[in-house]
Design a protein that fits this description.
3-stranded antiparallel beta sheet, 7% helix, mainly beta, single chain, 1 helix
Length: 85
């Protein structure tokens, strides 16, 4: 088993790309060489991230997002839990 994050991940529970077990470990995103901590969704193979636009909210109270294209690198913040423990 490889220790690489999924190709497409979202932190919105309504999304089909939401995965709570992956999000528990923490995902770090480097977008165009800059560390980003406010990424709502990303896709490595297509090369985009969704970032919130200021403090704007949609009618459901979720942050308004904008898709930005570029080089996306994802990595885990915490190591994988050992199966022997």
């Amino acid at each position: 088993m490889t220790d690489t994050p999924p190709d497409h991940l979202s932190n919105d529970p309504r999304s089909p790309f939401y995965n709570p077990s992956v999000l528990e470990r923490g995902i770090g995103i480097r977008f165009n060489g800059v560390e980003r901590s406010n990424v709502e969704e990303y896709c490595i193979s297509e090369g985009w991230v969704r970032l919130p636009v200021g403090k704007s909210l949609d009618r459901r109270g979720n942050p308004m997002t904008m898709k930005h294209k570029g080089q996306v690198e994802a990595y885990y913040l915490l190591p994988a839990p050992d199966s022997a423990e």
